[in-house]
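Page 37, continued from 36.
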């Protein structure tokens, strides 16, 4: 009866069909509670799936008497209270209680986990998005080695992630993000050789990134952002040749960005190194990221000129370089970034004419050049027509020392006039020499040529 629009409460008589193997009513709008004697009245149950309904109340402890259970799925309901003991459910393969209000945010909420060590065929253990608190018991190491998926994210868990977790050698997906975990990422993590996804972001993890992460050659997503990780990115990460998304943003990482990491050609979705303390230049190997969609190295201490190879990142849609010390001009090869939508070069030390090829980027929605030393023409009516249907938000710095309102009026007049003349180039350089440190937004959402001061 799954995936319908059934509503109301569930007829309790169904819970008396003692021969029932499968009870699956997922994705309806059924209300009410799960009968407290469900494990007694349905002793032969193998599949219990009431996911995505509106059940309230607790998970009855009698469930532990349905000893034939293979799949227990109650995710996406409004269940409360403690998770019952499941030590008799030896055949359990899927256990999913995600997205409920289970637990008390206190120690003890995870005591049911040790009972699950009896489920020697367990493959998915999903307890994410609840109010479960306390530390992870070391008995987690005795969970079945058949476990492929552990999702504990968005709870109130604290303490460290026990090293013993590496006993779970079949793990493919480990998600523990948005909890309060502290301590280090252990060297042993490199033993989880089947890992495809490791997401432990938004915790309070510290210490350095172990180089053994490089042994996880199947890893395709590594999310460590918003922790307190220190030290360098181990160059061994370059061994992770299946990596598609890597987010290390908002940590205390430092040192140079190694060429092995910036040249990890498998990266396709995201490379985010933002808000760390990286120094040195953007290595030229960045140009090897041909399939990468989003590159963010903003708010670091990167310097020197951008590598000419940058144009090799031909799939880029988002390029965030703001908040560094990049200088010089924008390499000509950047004109090859034809799919770019969001280009932020602000707060750097660029000193160049605004490249004309920017105005040929058809998908550009956001271009931020502020707090640099750029000058040169901005799009006129003609190039806007060619750029056609998209709305471009352009932010350019001017330098000014006169009363701001006055400048706005002068510039508005200037732009309104010039917008009627095709191919007229506005030399911001001229204005720059007259006015200091004023920032101007030119938005095509506003009437053509009108200006806003910020
Ligand atoms: C499980 O079944 C046994 C035997 O019928 C019974 O004594 C026990 O109370 C039941 N446990 C739960 C939690 O309902
Ligand atoms: C495993 O199951 C047996 C029998 O059902 C039980 O006696 C034992 O306590 C269980 N182990 C754990 C760790 O709960
Ligand atoms: C894991 O299981 C073994 C054998 O059953 C037992 O001796 C050990 O105490 C268990 N470890 C934990 C941390 O529960
Ligand atoms: C991978 O593991 C082996 C031992 O299992 C170790 O010698 C090697 O250094 C590890 N590689 C990396 C990149 O950590
Ligand atoms: C990179 O990470 C920062 C901070 O975590 C975030 O604000 C930014 O949106 C991310 N960039 C991209 C392109 O996703
Ligand atoms: C950029 O800065 C470096 C020092 O970081 C300096 O050597 C180089 O000359 C600068 N380049 C330009 C074009 O200003
Ligand atoms: C442009 O960049 C500046 C400096 O980084 C920032 O303060 C501003 O919010 C940005 N504007 C937009 C619209 O992104
Ligand atoms: C920025 O460039 C100017 C002029 O080229 C130079 O004097 C200044 O030291 C540079 N600032 C940084 C932080 O590199």
């Amino acid at each position: 009866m799954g995936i319908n629009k059934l509503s109301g409460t569930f007829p309790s008589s169904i819970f008396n069909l003692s021969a029932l193997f499968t009870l699956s009513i997922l994705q309806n709008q059924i209300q009410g509670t799960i009968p407290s004697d469900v494990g007694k009245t349905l002793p032969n149950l193998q599949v219990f799936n009431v996911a995505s309904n509106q059940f309230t109340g607790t998970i009855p402890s009698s469930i532990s008497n349905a000893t034939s259970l293979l799949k227990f799925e109650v995710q996406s309901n409004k269940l409360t209270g403690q998770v019952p003991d499941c030590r008799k459910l030896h055949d359990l393969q899927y256990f999913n209680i995600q997205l409920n209000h289970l637990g008390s945010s206190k120690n003890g909420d995870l005591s049911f986990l040790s009972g699950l060590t009896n489920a020697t065929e367990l493959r998915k253990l999903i307890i994410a998005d609840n109010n479960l608190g306390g530390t992870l018991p070391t008995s987690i190491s005795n969970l079945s080695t058949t476990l492929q998926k552990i999702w504990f994210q968005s709870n109130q868990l604290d303490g460290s992630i026990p090293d013993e977790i590496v006993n779970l050698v079949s793990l493919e997906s480990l998600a523990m993000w948005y909890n309060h975990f502290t301590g280090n990422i252990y060297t042993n993590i490199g033993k989880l050789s089947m890992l495809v996804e490791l997401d432990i972001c938004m915790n309070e993890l510290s210490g350095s990134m172990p180089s053994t992460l490089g042994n996880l050659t199947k890893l395709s997503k590594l999310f460590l952002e918003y922790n307190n990780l220190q030290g360098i990115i181990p160059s061994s990460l370059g061994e992770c040749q299946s990596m598609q998304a890597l987010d290390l943003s908002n940590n205390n990482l430092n040192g140079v960005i190694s060429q092995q990491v910036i040249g990890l050609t498998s990266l396709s979705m995201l490379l985010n190194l933002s808000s760390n303390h990286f120094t040195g230049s953007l290595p030229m190997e960045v140009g090897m990221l041909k399939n990468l969609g989003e590159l963010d190295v903003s708010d670091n201490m990167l310097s020197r000129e951008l590598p000419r190879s940058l144009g090799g990142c031909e799939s880029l849609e988002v390029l965030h370089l703001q908040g560094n010390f990049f200088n010089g001009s924008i390499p000509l090869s950047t004109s090859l970034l034809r799919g770019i939508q969001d280009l932020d070069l602000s707060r750097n030390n660029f000193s160049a004419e605004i490249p004309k090829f920017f105005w040929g980027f058809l998908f550009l929605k956001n271009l931020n050049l502020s707090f640099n030393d750029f000058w040169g023409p901005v799009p006129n009516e003609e190039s806007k027509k060619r750029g056609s249907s998209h709305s471009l938000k352009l932010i350019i710095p001017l330098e000014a020392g006169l009363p701001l309102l006055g400048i706005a009026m002068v510039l508005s007049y200037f732009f309104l006039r010039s917008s009627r003349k095709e191919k007229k180039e506005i030399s911001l350089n001229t204005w720059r020499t007259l006015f200091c440190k004023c920032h101007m937004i030119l938005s095509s959402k506003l009437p053509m040529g009108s200006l806003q001061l910020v």
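DSSP finds six helices and 33 strands in the chain. Flag for discussion at group meeting. The two ends are 58 Å apart (CA to CA).
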